[in-house]
UniProtKB/TrEMBL annotation:
It comes from the Eukaryota. This is Uncharacterized protein. Keywords: Membrane, Transmembrane, Transmembrane helix. Signal peptide: none annotated. The keyword Hydrolase does not apply. Residues 362-381 are annotated as: Disordered. Residues 362-375 have a biased composition (Acidic residues). The chain crosses the membrane at residues 86-108, 149-170, 235-252, 259-282, 288-308, 328-346.
Amino acid sequence: MEMESKSTPVTGDYIAHTDGSAAEQTAVNFEDPRIKSLRLINALSYALTVMVSLGSIHTSVNDEYDDYEVWITNQTLLSVAPYTQYIWYILFLLQGLFIAASFLPSLWSSELLGYNVLAAQTGYKHPLPVVHYPALCASTLMMMYSAKLNLMSMAFLGSCASTYFLVSIIKYQLDNDTTPPEEETFGEITKWFQRRITPASTLQLDDVTSPDVTDEKTLKDRIQQYFFLKLPFELYAGFNLALNVSFLNIIIHKLIASAVFNLVLASASLLFLLGVGCYVSWTEKKGLSYGIGGGLAWYMFGVFFQLINPSAPIMMTYSEEAIDAAKYMSVIFANVLLSTVAIRAVKNAINVNVVRVDEMEDGLEDEEEEEDDVGAEYTQV
Protein backbone atom coordinates (compact mmCIF):
# COMPACT_ATOMS: atom_id res chain seq x y z
CA MET A 1 0.00 0.00 0.00
CA GLU A 2 1.43 3.32 -1.00
CA MET A 3 1.55 6.10 1.53
CA GLU A 4 2.63 9.60 0.68
CA SER A 5 5.34 11.10 2.88
CA LYS A 6 3.90 14.57 3.14
CA SER A 7 6.31 15.81 5.72
CA THR A 8 9.58 15.49 3.87
CA PRO A 9 11.38 18.84 3.85
CA VAL A 10 11.27 20.29 0.37
CA THR A 11 13.67 22.71 -1.15
CA GLY A 12 12.35 22.29 -4.67
CA ASP A 13 8.96 21.61 -6.22
CA TYR A 14 8.66 17.88 -5.53
CA ILE A 15 7.88 15.70 -2.54
CA ALA A 16 8.92 12.08 -2.12
CA HIS A 17 6.59 9.09 -1.86
CA THR A 18 7.44 6.15 0.35
CA ASP A 19 8.09 4.04 -2.73
CA GLY A 20 10.72 6.44 -4.01
CA SER A 21 8.56 8.18 -6.60
CA ALA A 22 7.91 11.90 -6.60
CA ALA A 23 4.87 14.10 -6.85
CA GLU A 24 4.68 17.76 -7.62
CA GLN A 25 4.19 20.00 -4.59
CA THR A 26 2.92 23.53 -4.48
CA ALA A 27 5.81 25.91 -3.85
CA VAL A 28 5.41 28.43 -1.05
CA ASN A 29 5.45 31.98 -2.31
CA PHE A 30 6.04 34.33 0.59
CA GLU A 31 5.17 37.29 -1.62
CA ASP A 32 1.55 36.10 -1.45
CA PRO A 33 -0.15 38.72 0.79
CA ARG A 34 -1.96 36.06 2.82
CA ILE A 35 1.15 34.04 3.56
CA LYS A 36 3.34 37.08 4.06
CA SER A 37 0.87 38.59 6.51
CA LEU A 38 0.38 35.32 8.38
CA ARG A 39 4.10 34.82 8.82
CA LEU A 40 4.38 38.35 10.24
CA ILE A 41 1.38 37.79 12.56
CA ASN A 42 2.93 34.56 13.87
CA ALA A 43 6.26 36.25 14.55
CA LEU A 44 4.64 39.22 16.32
CA SER A 45 2.35 36.94 18.35
CA TYR A 46 5.33 34.95 19.50
CA ALA A 47 7.38 38.02 20.42
CA LEU A 48 4.49 39.60 22.36
CA THR A 49 3.70 36.37 24.21
CA VAL A 50 7.31 35.81 25.20
CA MET A 51 7.83 39.34 26.49
CA VAL A 52 4.57 39.50 28.41
CA SER A 53 4.59 35.94 29.74
CA LEU A 54 8.19 35.75 30.86
CA GLY A 55 7.83 39.18 32.40
CA SER A 56 5.02 37.84 34.55
CA ILE A 57 6.69 34.61 35.64
CA HIS A 58 9.47 35.95 37.82
CA THR A 59 8.70 39.51 38.83
CA SER A 60 8.42 39.17 42.60
CA VAL A 61 11.21 39.90 45.06
CA ASN A 62 9.67 37.37 47.47
CA ASP A 63 12.06 34.46 47.04
CA GLU A 64 11.04 32.19 44.14
CA TYR A 65 7.36 33.11 44.07
CA ASP A 66 5.79 35.28 41.41
CA ASP A 67 2.95 36.22 43.76
CA TYR A 68 3.15 34.56 47.16
CA GLU A 69 -0.39 35.48 48.19
CA VAL A 70 -1.91 33.94 45.07
CA TRP A 71 0.28 30.89 45.43
CA ILE A 72 -0.48 30.24 49.10
CA THR A 73 -4.24 30.76 48.77
CA ASN A 74 -4.57 28.21 45.96
CA GLN A 75 -2.77 25.26 47.52
CA THR A 76 -3.97 21.75 46.66
CA LEU A 77 -2.32 18.36 46.64
CA LEU A 78 -1.43 19.02 42.99
CA SER A 79 0.32 22.33 43.60
CA VAL A 80 3.86 22.31 42.24
CA ALA A 81 7.17 23.65 43.50
CA PRO A 82 7.75 27.25 42.33
CA TYR A 83 10.72 26.36 40.11
CA THR A 84 8.44 24.21 37.93
CA GLN A 85 7.36 27.40 36.14
CA TYR A 86 10.79 27.71 34.52
CA ILE A 87 9.76 25.14 31.93
CA TRP A 88 8.22 28.15 30.20
CA TYR A 89 11.70 29.23 29.13
CA ILE A 90 12.13 25.89 27.34
CA LEU A 91 8.64 26.04 25.87
CA PHE A 92 9.15 29.50 24.41
CA LEU A 93 12.61 28.59 23.13
CA LEU A 94 11.08 25.66 21.23
CA GLN A 95 8.28 27.85 19.92
CA GLY A 96 10.98 30.21 18.69
CA LEU A 97 12.28 27.31 16.60
CA PHE A 98 8.78 26.88 15.17
CA ILE A 99 8.69 30.54 14.16
CA ALA A 100 12.20 30.28 12.71
CA ALA A 101 11.10 27.33 10.56
CA SER A 102 9.07 29.67 8.35
CA PHE A 103 12.34 31.42 7.43
CA LEU A 104 14.32 28.24 6.69
CA PRO A 105 14.14 26.92 3.10
CA SER A 106 14.51 23.34 4.32
CA LEU A 107 11.38 23.61 6.48
CA TRP A 108 9.03 26.28 5.15
CA SER A 109 7.43 23.89 2.62
CA SER A 110 6.78 21.16 5.20
CA GLU A 111 3.12 20.27 5.64
CA LEU A 112 3.77 20.14 9.37
CA LEU A 113 3.99 23.94 9.14
CA GLY A 114 1.03 24.54 6.83
CA TYR A 115 2.11 27.34 4.50
CA ASN A 116 2.09 25.01 1.50
CA VAL A 117 -1.56 24.15 2.13
CA LEU A 118 -2.41 27.85 2.07
CA ALA A 119 -0.40 28.27 -1.12
CA ALA A 120 -2.25 25.40 -2.80
CA GLN A 121 -5.81 26.57 -2.23
CA THR A 122 -7.85 29.66 -1.49
CA GLY A 123 -9.94 27.96 1.19
CA TYR A 124 -8.87 25.37 3.73
CA LYS A 125 -10.55 23.11 6.26
CA HIS A 126 -7.49 21.94 8.13
CA PRO A 127 -6.36 23.15 11.59
CA LEU A 128 -3.08 24.43 10.18
CA PRO A 129 -0.38 25.11 12.80
CA VAL A 130 0.47 28.51 11.32
CA VAL A 131 -3.21 29.51 11.45
CA HIS A 132 -3.85 28.27 15.00
CA TYR A 133 -0.62 29.58 16.51
CA PRO A 134 -1.75 33.22 17.11
CA ALA A 135 -4.87 31.91 18.87
CA LEU A 136 -2.68 29.63 20.97
CA CYS A 137 -0.61 32.65 22.01
CA ALA A 138 -3.77 34.54 22.99
CA SER A 139 -5.10 31.65 25.11
CA THR A 140 -1.70 31.30 26.77
CA LEU A 141 -1.71 34.96 27.78
CA MET A 142 -5.27 34.64 29.05
CA MET A 143 -4.33 31.66 31.19
CA MET A 144 -1.16 33.16 32.67
CA TYR A 145 -2.55 36.57 33.50
CA SER A 146 -5.79 35.16 34.90
CA ALA A 147 -3.74 32.97 37.23
CA LYS A 148 -1.60 35.95 38.21
CA LEU A 149 -4.75 37.93 39.07
CA ASN A 150 -6.15 34.94 41.02
CA LEU A 151 -8.99 34.42 38.54
CA MET A 152 -8.74 30.65 38.49
CA SER A 153 -11.94 30.04 36.55
CA MET A 154 -10.67 32.26 33.74
CA ALA A 155 -7.26 30.59 33.94
CA PHE A 156 -8.97 27.22 33.57
CA LEU A 157 -10.87 28.43 30.50
CA GLY A 158 -7.64 29.78 29.03
CA SER A 159 -5.84 26.49 29.59
CA CYS A 160 -8.78 24.59 28.04
CA ALA A 161 -8.59 26.85 24.98
CA SER A 162 -4.85 26.20 24.75
CA THR A 163 -5.52 22.47 24.97
CA TYR A 164 -7.99 22.71 22.09
CA PHE A 165 -5.51 24.51 19.83
CA LEU A 166 -2.64 22.23 20.81
CA VAL A 167 -4.65 19.07 20.20
CA SER A 168 -5.81 20.42 16.83
CA ILE A 169 -2.24 21.21 15.78
CA ILE A 170 -0.84 17.89 16.97
CA LYS A 171 -3.65 15.92 15.34
CA TYR A 172 -3.06 17.73 12.05
CA GLN A 173 0.67 16.99 12.23
CA LEU A 174 0.06 13.33 13.04
CA ASP A 175 -2.36 12.98 10.15
CA ASN A 176 0.19 14.48 7.79
CA ASP A 177 3.33 12.87 9.13
CA THR A 178 2.95 9.87 11.36
CA THR A 179 -0.20 8.01 10.38
CA PRO A 180 0.73 4.37 9.82
CA PRO A 181 -0.75 2.18 7.07
CA GLU A 182 -4.22 0.72 7.44
CA GLU A 183 -2.69 -2.72 7.90
CA GLU A 184 -1.86 -2.30 11.56
CA THR A 185 0.29 -5.39 11.99
CA PHE A 186 3.57 -4.97 13.79
CA GLY A 187 5.58 -5.74 10.67
CA GLU A 188 3.66 -3.28 8.50
CA ILE A 189 4.07 -0.48 11.03
CA THR A 190 7.82 -1.02 11.42
CA LYS A 191 8.30 -1.15 7.66
CA TRP A 192 6.20 1.99 7.29
CA PHE A 193 8.32 3.78 9.89
CA GLN A 194 11.52 2.72 8.15
CA ARG A 195 10.20 4.04 4.85
CA ARG A 196 9.47 7.38 6.54
CA ILE A 197 13.11 7.88 7.49
CA THR A 198 14.83 6.01 4.63
CA PRO A 199 13.98 6.91 1.03
CA ALA A 200 13.97 4.21 -1.60
CA SER A 201 17.44 3.70 -3.03
CA THR A 202 18.90 1.39 -5.62
CA LEU A 203 21.11 -1.33 -4.17
CA GLN A 204 24.22 -1.77 -6.30
CA LEU A 205 26.02 -5.09 -6.06
CA ASP A 206 29.48 -4.45 -7.37
CA ASP A 207 32.96 -4.04 -5.94
CA VAL A 208 32.86 -0.27 -6.13
CA THR A 209 29.58 0.78 -4.51
CA SER A 210 28.28 -0.86 -1.35
CA PRO A 211 24.57 -0.87 -0.44
CA ASP A 212 23.53 2.39 1.18
CA VAL A 213 20.21 1.85 2.91
CA THR A 214 20.32 4.78 5.34
CA ASP A 215 20.16 8.30 3.99
CA GLU A 216 21.84 10.31 6.75
CA LYS A 217 20.67 13.61 5.33
CA THR A 218 17.04 12.51 5.35
CA LEU A 219 17.33 11.28 8.94
CA LYS A 220 18.93 14.58 9.93
CA ASP A 221 16.09 16.46 8.25
CA ARG A 222 13.47 14.46 10.14
CA ILE A 223 15.19 15.14 13.45
CA GLN A 224 15.25 18.83 12.55
CA GLN A 225 11.54 18.69 11.71
CA TYR A 226 10.72 17.09 15.04
CA PHE A 227 12.55 19.68 17.15
CA PHE A 228 11.40 22.66 15.08
CA LEU A 229 7.82 21.70 14.23
CA LYS A 230 6.50 18.99 16.57
CA LEU A 231 8.27 19.07 19.94
CA PRO A 232 7.23 22.71 20.66
CA PHE A 233 3.57 21.67 20.68
CA GLU A 234 3.97 18.21 22.21
CA LEU A 235 5.91 19.41 25.26
CA TYR A 236 3.52 22.32 25.78
CA ALA A 237 0.50 20.02 25.38
CA GLY A 238 1.75 17.72 28.14
CA PHE A 239 2.49 20.52 30.59
CA ASN A 240 -0.70 22.41 29.69
CA LEU A 241 -2.85 19.33 30.24
CA ALA A 242 -1.42 19.09 33.76
CA LEU A 243 -2.27 22.78 34.26
CA ASN A 244 -5.86 22.03 33.17
CA VAL A 245 -6.14 19.45 35.90
CA SER A 246 -4.43 21.69 38.44
CA PHE A 247 -6.80 24.63 37.84
CA LEU A 248 -9.79 22.28 38.02
CA ASN A 249 -8.58 20.96 41.38
CA ILE A 250 -8.21 24.51 42.69
CA ILE A 251 -11.77 25.44 41.62
CA ILE A 252 -13.32 22.30 43.13
CA HIS A 253 -11.23 22.63 46.30
CA LYS A 254 -12.76 26.07 46.88
CA LEU A 255 -16.27 24.70 46.29
CA ILE A 256 -15.92 21.47 48.29
CA ALA A 257 -13.82 21.68 51.44
CA SER A 258 -13.78 17.92 52.16
CA ALA A 259 -10.21 16.69 52.58
CA VAL A 260 -11.20 13.12 51.67
CA PHE A 261 -12.99 14.22 48.50
CA ASN A 262 -10.06 16.37 47.39
CA LEU A 263 -7.60 13.55 48.06
CA VAL A 264 -9.68 11.25 45.86
CA LEU A 265 -9.89 13.97 43.21
CA ALA A 266 -6.11 14.52 43.26
CA SER A 267 -5.49 10.77 42.99
CA ALA A 268 -7.94 10.44 40.10
CA SER A 269 -6.30 13.41 38.39
CA LEU A 270 -2.84 11.85 38.65
CA LEU A 271 -4.19 8.55 37.29
CA PHE A 272 -5.81 10.41 34.39
CA LEU A 273 -2.55 12.20 33.53
CA LEU A 274 -0.65 8.92 33.72
CA GLY A 275 -3.13 7.22 31.40
CA VAL A 276 -2.99 10.00 28.82
CA GLY A 277 0.80 10.16 28.96
CA CYS A 278 1.26 6.41 28.53
CA TYR A 279 -1.29 6.27 25.69
CA VAL A 280 0.19 9.02 23.56
CA SER A 281 3.77 7.90 24.25
CA TRP A 282 3.24 4.24 23.42
CA THR A 283 0.34 3.70 21.04
CA GLU A 284 1.41 2.59 17.60
CA LYS A 285 -1.40 4.48 15.86
CA LYS A 286 -0.53 8.01 16.94
CA GLY A 287 3.14 8.31 16.15
CA LEU A 288 6.02 9.35 18.36
CA SER A 289 4.69 11.90 20.83
CA TYR A 290 7.61 11.88 23.25
CA GLY A 291 7.13 15.50 24.33
CA ILE A 292 3.69 15.00 25.88
CA GLY A 293 4.98 12.41 28.32
CA GLY A 294 7.95 14.65 29.13
CA GLY A 295 5.73 17.64 29.94
CA LEU A 296 3.49 15.57 32.20
CA ALA A 297 6.46 14.02 34.00
CA TRP A 298 7.97 17.46 34.65
CA TYR A 299 4.74 18.60 36.29
CA MET A 300 4.49 15.46 38.43
CA PHE A 301 8.05 15.88 39.66
CA GLY A 302 7.08 19.43 40.64
CA VAL A 303 4.20 18.02 42.72
CA PHE A 304 6.54 15.54 44.40
CA PHE A 305 9.15 18.10 45.42
CA GLN A 306 6.48 20.50 46.65
CA LEU A 307 5.00 17.82 48.92
CA ILE A 308 8.39 16.98 50.42
CA ASN A 309 8.06 20.25 52.31
CA PRO A 310 4.32 20.97 52.07
CA SER A 311 2.94 24.44 52.66
CA ALA A 312 1.08 25.35 55.84
CA PRO A 313 -2.43 25.13 54.27
CA ILE A 314 -1.70 21.59 53.05
CA MET A 315 -0.34 20.46 56.43
CA MET A 316 -3.39 21.87 58.22
CA THR A 317 -5.90 20.36 55.78
CA TYR A 318 -4.54 16.88 55.07
CA SER A 319 -3.13 14.09 57.18
CA GLU A 320 0.46 12.99 56.80
CA GLU A 321 -0.74 9.76 55.18
CA ALA A 322 -2.75 11.67 52.57
CA ILE A 323 0.20 13.90 51.76
CA ASP A 324 2.51 10.89 51.43
CA ALA A 325 0.01 9.13 49.17
CA ALA A 326 -0.13 12.07 46.73
CA LYS A 327 3.63 12.58 46.96
CA TYR A 328 4.58 9.01 46.13
CA MET A 329 1.92 8.64 43.46
CA SER A 330 3.30 11.69 41.66
CA VAL A 331 6.94 10.56 41.69
CA ILE A 332 6.08 6.96 40.74
CA PHE A 333 3.85 8.08 37.88
CA ALA A 334 6.49 10.55 36.67
CA ASN A 335 9.07 7.77 36.53
CA VAL A 336 6.60 5.47 34.77
CA LEU A 337 6.05 8.13 32.10
CA LEU A 338 9.76 8.71 31.57
CA SER A 339 10.36 4.95 31.43
CA THR A 340 7.57 4.57 28.88
CA VAL A 341 9.07 7.26 26.67
CA ALA A 342 12.57 5.75 27.00
CA ILE A 343 11.40 2.20 26.27
CA ARG A 344 9.41 3.41 23.27
CA ALA A 345 12.46 5.20 21.91
CA VAL A 346 14.65 2.09 22.32
CA LYS A 347 11.92 -0.10 20.83
CA ASN A 348 11.67 2.10 17.75
CA ALA A 349 15.45 2.20 17.33
CA ILE A 350 15.57 -1.62 17.44
CA ASN A 351 12.64 -1.93 15.03
CA VAL A 352 14.29 0.44 12.56
CA ASN A 353 17.55 -1.50 12.64
CA VAL A 354 15.75 -4.84 12.19
CA VAL A 355 13.72 -3.54 9.27
CA ARG A 356 16.84 -1.98 7.75
CA VAL A 357 18.59 -5.36 7.76
CA ASP A 358 15.49 -7.13 6.39
CA GLU A 359 15.14 -4.61 3.55
CA MET A 360 18.83 -4.96 2.71
CA GLU A 361 18.48 -8.74 2.56
CA ASP A 362 15.32 -8.44 0.45
CA GLY A 363 17.14 -6.11 -1.93
CA LEU A 364 20.05 -8.53 -2.24
CA GLU A 365 17.68 -11.42 -2.93
CA ASP A 366 15.87 -9.42 -5.62
CA GLU A 367 19.16 -8.56 -7.31
CA GLU A 368 20.23 -12.20 -7.22
CA GLU A 369 16.93 -13.28 -8.75
CA GLU A 370 17.32 -10.72 -11.53
CA GLU A 371 20.85 -11.93 -12.23
CA ASP A 372 19.60 -15.54 -12.34
CA ASP A 373 16.85 -14.57 -14.78
CA VAL A 374 19.33 -12.77 -17.03
CA GLY A 375 21.68 -15.77 -16.89
CA ALA A 376 18.86 -18.13 -17.82
CA GLU A 377 17.93 -15.95 -20.81
CA TYR A 378 21.53 -15.98 -22.09
CA THR A 379 21.67 -19.77 -21.63
CA GLN A 380 18.53 -20.22 -23.72
CA VAL A 381 20.01 -18.02 -26.45
